Amino acid sequence: MSSFWSGGLAYDLGQTVLRTIQAFGIAALIGVPLGITIGSNQRIYRSVEFVIDFFRSTPATALFPLFMIIFGLGDFAKIAVAAFSALLIILFNVAYGVMNARQTRRLAARVMGASPLRVFKDVTFYECLPQTFVGLRTAVSLSLVIIIVAEMFIGSDNGLGKRIIDSQITFDMPQLYGTILLTGALGYGFNLFFLNLESRLVHWAGR
Asked: What domains can be seen in the chain, in order of their start residue?
């Protein structure tokens, strides 16, 4: 185990985790409130639906050259392309969750005299949380994938993606397989974290 962690693997793991969290954090901070705003108004959603679906369906790797031209070869280019792709996933899921909040509960709140703001805060917001967490889980996994691929093909001095490509070039099979397994465990860990968080915060989903 000590030999596996030698040679800066722990540092590479930390850099990949840091970039992933930064990309996901940017996407969540922008995507959640924007998704709520768009989902609250069907006219706005219909006007931007094509743009969201178009870029959401575009492979992130096809955007690498564009982001490299705009942001250069530094870390920010990797984080930006991952954040952009994750943002679209979060935006779509949050907007979908808001639009599909159960109308019966909304109507019941209105009948009892709740204001539109109160209906949104106490009904719509909680109704959209399950779909929001679907978007968050998908987005963090996508962020990790894109960061690793970016570390492999956009100039990088560290990260698990850089270690994978270096191991392939030097035919260091133990390092290659070990790093691949580590990336899988990292992705599983992110997903498990959000599943546990969802079970605590949205334990009432489906009731």
From this structure: 9-201 (1.10.3720.10)
